[in-house]
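Amino acid chain:
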Amino acid sequence: MPKKRRNRGRAKKNAGRKRRVACELSGKLVPKDKAIKRYIVRNIVNTAAISDLKEASVYDEYALPKLYYKMYYCVGAACHRRIVRSRSKKEMKDRTPPPRRRYSDGKKSSK
C-alpha cells in the first residue's frame, strides 16, 4: 500500500509507543508526536485593563506576568478550526518551514 506522507504523519522515528495527550477542542486522545502543537504566550490581563493597572501601580516599571500555555490538537480538529490546512502533493514535498510571525512592540509584522 502506498504511503501518503514521508513520516506517516508522526515524528516518532524508532521510538515505539508515545504517550497520549488530550486534544484541546475535542478531548480526543492523540499520540504526542502526532498532535499539532501550538505554544501560546498571552498577557494575563486583557488590554483594556492594562492602562488601569499601570495607573494604580506603585512601581514605575512593573512588567505584567504572561500566561504560557502549550496547546495540543488532533488532526481533525486542527483542520476544522483552520489551525493547519491541507496542502497539495507538490507543496507537501517542499520541506522548508513556513514563515514565522514576528512581533514588534506588541503588533504583528509580516517579515
